[in-house]
Amino acid sequence: MTRISALLLSTALAMPAFAQTSGIEKEELTLGFIKLTDMAPLAIAKEKGFFEDEGLSVTLVAQSNWKVLLDGVVSGELDGAHMLAGQPIAASIGYGTKAALVTPFSMDLNGNAITVSNAVWEEMKANVPMEGGKPVHPIKADALKPVIEAYADAGTPFNLGMVFPVSTHNYELRYWLAAGGINPGLYSPDDVSGQIGGEVLISVTPPPQMPATLEAGTILGYAVGEPWNQAAVAKGIGVPVITDAEIWRNNPEKVFGLTAEFVEANPQTVLALTKALIRAAMWLDEGDNVNRAEAVEILARSEYVGADAAVIANSMTGTFEFEPGDKRPAPDFNVFFRYNATFPYYSDAVWTLTQMRRWGQISEAKPDAWYDETAKSVYKPEIYKLAAEALVADGHATTEMFDFDADGYREPTAEFIDGVSYDGKAPNGYIDSLMIGLKGDQTVVGGAVTN
What we know:
Elements: H1 3-14, E1 28-33, H2 40-47, H3 50-53, E2 57-62, H4 66-75, E3 80-84, H5 86-93, E4 101-106, E5 109-110, E6 112-117, H6 118-125, E7 130-131, E8 134-135, H7 145-153, E9 159-162, H8 168-179, E10 186-188, E11 191-196, E12 201-204, H9 210-215, E13 221-225, H10 228-235, E14 238-243, H11 244-247, E15 254-259, H12 260-265, H13 267-289, H14 292-299, H15 309-316, E16 319-321, E17 327-329, E18 334-335, H16 346-358, H17 368-378, H18 381-394, H19 427-433, E19 443-445, E20 448-450
Parallel strand pairs: 1-2, 1-3, 9-12, 9-13
Antiparallel strand pairs: 3-15, 4-15, 5-18, 6-13, 6-14, 7-8, 10-11, 16-17, 19-20
């Protein structure tokens, strides 16, 4: 039994049958976030009093970028944070910052999109099927391939932006491009640009700066979360061409991350945090999104996302706007609780690891067991289950609302834009089935792929 498991067992034995969690080790907490719509569970837990119900006094502090946020959690300046799903996973294996981070709570599903400049969109349109004068969705990267080839023929680099090297945005953008026959480039231990052999040049841009960078022409497109795709539409500078829900239906996005040291020292505090965040997620998805208008008003405040409420509402209230006026139903663009969105599934972590291996961030082949062990070192469904059981005991939830029988792995799915099937228990078979990227024992040496 691990130390965390032992502490959780003692927590369960001491757990009271009322709302406020007893024995909280640290009542005053500082939590970090990036100004994105999917930080909503944190804002809602604070504004609706769910943190306070659990005996916590929480200060939420916006961070300038994902690296600063990660460093804040690792140093202890932040007690926890809204994180990219890949951040605690990458830290655990020492890619970039080395640190023991864990997550007991997945913050949302979906929520990202890929936006291109107006000029690129006009060129893409010639390759996109139309129906009733409007593009047929989902739009595949096949439509972008001739555009990229034309840029290459003219000697012009095709620059794209994403928010962080281990972000789901990076992996979704790469997945979409590769499914359309476009090589997005590889990483190696000696070259962490991610551009080795790439037909495009993908680099990092912080989320709030995406629209301005696109408008300046520094990048020709980007993958980012909301509201920064809808902001491009509102400003008339770009067109979102595909959402991540169309690349992989109900894909994991952000997590709530803490250091393993904090969890070991403060098990009751972490239990209280997880309970409050689950309640916030439930509230966000309650009654077929009946609370979303109020959530938009909260998120629009300067201390949270600080974007125009109408822009946030475009994707938060069941629709998504592509070209100006082309607003389509998208009830699951932002999912916070349904489909077991908040459960930290090992299979979600394994998928991230497969993409890290596919693109060379994991430089050498690993056995399937390694993927399982790594996922279990970071994702902590045992904490989540304790929190869910406490909410049921408190009368805030019912047993049917949770996946208590989960072994930590979702069922295999082929709901990807290329139809490839993913089974989290067979990661190497999945990696080898993908069209572009490293496979088997391949590595990148001196800018070339070797076996």
